[in-house]
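Quick start: read one record
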Amino acid sequence: MTEYQGNVHSYVLDIQSPNNPYNHKSVITLHGTFGLAILYFVPQDGQLGENQKRAGQEIFDIYYWMDSWLQFTDLLRNEKLMHFLYDDSNNTAQIRSVPATVPGRSVRFADRFIKAHLLSRENRKNNQPQYGQGA
């Protein structure tokens, strides 16, 4: 089993005319540190091809149903960092957003923020008036 992965650096959206001779109608090409991934989008009445890594090349052919086109374009347009993963043991691919970093790029900042938030909640709880008790 080998996994090929890397960040997506750029992408191209390609919409084919309805009379094209191919089974797919739209294509998204991803370029990145992993090589080239070609995502083929096939209409529901079509036939999905078999996902594959081309022999001797860093090119991946991945097939999806056309109804997932909008999710992919939304993900690519709205997320800043994207990651591609291909697993050749079961010929599956994953495209996902990369988690955002905390401002200041410091774990210490995140720790201080969480501690301050918890302390603030505790202070609010301790400073609330105690109802039902005489003043």
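The beta strands are 3-15, 26-32, 35-42, 52-53, 59-65, 82-87, 92-97.
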